[in-house]
Amino acid sequence: MTPDTVISSTTSGERRRVAPGYVPPLPKLWDPDGPKPAAIGPALWDALREAVLATQAQWERAIEHASGAEEVTTHLAQLSTAVRQQLLGPAEETVEVPRTALARRLLGLMRGAFLERAQALPSPADSNQLLRLLGAIEGVSQRLEADWSQHFTDRLSSPDGLELVVEVAHDLRSPLTSILFLAETLQRGRSGAVNPVQERQLGLIYSAAFGLSSVASDVIELARGGDRLVDLDPIPFSVTDIFESVRDIVQPIAEEKGLTVRLATPEADFRIGHPVALSRVLLNLTTNALKFTAEGFVEVVARQTDARRLEFSVRDTGRGIPPQSMVSLFEPFRRRQKPGEYAFSGSGLGLSICRKLVEAMGSTLQVETEQGAGTRFFFELDLPLAGDSSLG
Q: Are 126 and 264 members of one domain?
């Protein structure tokens, strides 16, 4: 640190310069000569006291989380006192700990400094005493973690909570996009030849990353109200192209489980509609069907019901959906009652998005299921033939 370094004062908000080697004093809250726990020997207690002082001297390593040097040492004094009180037992009044990023950083520095000094003792420390002291530090750490959880909950329930969800989803989607690109590049041999086993493994990587990326996109769109779930204007597309794209993505998963993916496309293939939304629904439904099918097949069908309308369905030969799960099947962020219970995903988000997409395309997502025989999700869309003069 240089003499020109500027540090903000936590008390007045003013900014001032400090000299090189400056170490802010610890508040009187932390008294190194205060009561010592009877269960901790003097050598280990001295190691803890020296660790606190060493952390105080390294205050600059935590300044990024603080508004000034005084805030660092105030936090350190509170944490040190909390550790002492953990050791002295429940009879002691519990000090409030500052549940902040700064506190987490300082407690980590203190723990590291203490372990260094405990290991450097001339004679090995008593293991029971060492564990007791480390347990006290961990106890304070858990008090900090609990508040971080509450802080996150509070942030989610605040007016900008949905924006936080969107930010997290964006952070997930960016690296997943890179994984998708790299997996596809390797799978197509652009970086050199790959053997069949590697090709299958790359396919699994691509499928998994694509699924995660889709979940991130679903979260973003659901948080923003779903206004952009469907393309604004219908466009021409090939039903067969969509089906084959879905099969290509899920094929590695099917092969890994020994399942067959069947496709049945209509004779009149080129239609006018919303291909991106349709593709996402079929991919979600097909992936889920594979997830809950142990043997047999998954079938994706587009059946023509009249000149303009197609019924789309995804059928599996899986275990079926139990009656108790049908009630909340389409609810987002539903809670599973017990491990292993049927759920489209851990959050229920995927099926909720599917229903929203289907409704946005003017239809209703329906389900038929039979225990031990399989499940069929289906919906019907008005998709005029491309080039049909009767459009509109």
A: no
